[in-house]
Amino acid sequence: MKIISFVLIAFVANYSYASECQSGEILIASCDIPGKINSVAAFCAKKEDDTIRYTFSKGNVSELTVDFDSQNKLKRWIDLGTYTTYLGFNRGVYSYVLRVPEEKPGVVAYLDVKKNGGVISSRRCDSNSFGEKNIKMNSIEDVDDAFVRNNRFNFP
To answer: Is cis: bond before 156, omega within 30 of 0?
Structure first.
C-alpha cells in the first residue's frame, strides 16, 4: 500500500510541472519564482516539429517568448564537475540561463539574466524543475564542457 501511495504522489508532482507546457509539448525544465507576483520560466519541446519554446510569465502575462529550431538553437551545457545542466540563449545584449542541478532531494534551479556578460538578476526557483533536460533534438546545441571551462565559464 505504501508503494502505491508513493507512486501516486510522484505522478501528481510531475503533472503539475508539465502544466507550464501546451498540449503536445514536453517539459524540458521550468522555474517557479516567488514574489509579489509569481513568475514562471519554462522550456517546452514539441518533438513532432523539433522546436522548443521558452516562455517567461509574470502572473498570467507572458513577458518573453522565444522559439528555437534547427536554425536558432537553444544551447545546453552539462557541467561535468557538478552535473548541473545549463540551458541558455542570447537575445541582443541579454543572456538567459536556467541552471538545473543534479536531481537530488531539496535542490532547485536558478534563473540568471545577464546584460553585456554581467549578471543583473539571479533568482532561486521555488520548486524543483526536473523535466526532460537531456532530450535530444536538432533545436538544441550541446556545448562541450571543456569549451566552457577554457572560455572562463562564459555561457551561453
So the answer is: yes
Q: How many CB atoms lie within 10 A of CB 69?
A: 15
Considering just the CA atoms, what is the radius of gyration of the chain in Å? 16
Q: What is the pLDDT of residues 60-98, one digit of tens each?
A: 899 999 999 999 999 999 999 999 999 999 999 999 999
CA neighbor of 45 nearest in space, from 149, 154, 138: 138
Q: In which order are the strands placed within the sheet that holds 39-46?
A: 26-33, 39-46, 51-58, 61-68
pTM for the model: 0.83
The H helix count followed by the E strand count for the chain is: 2, 10
- Distance (Å, whole) CA 108 – CA 55: 19
Q: What is the pLDDT of residues 119-155, one digit of tens each?
A: 999 999 987 667 888 899 999 999 999 999 999 898 9
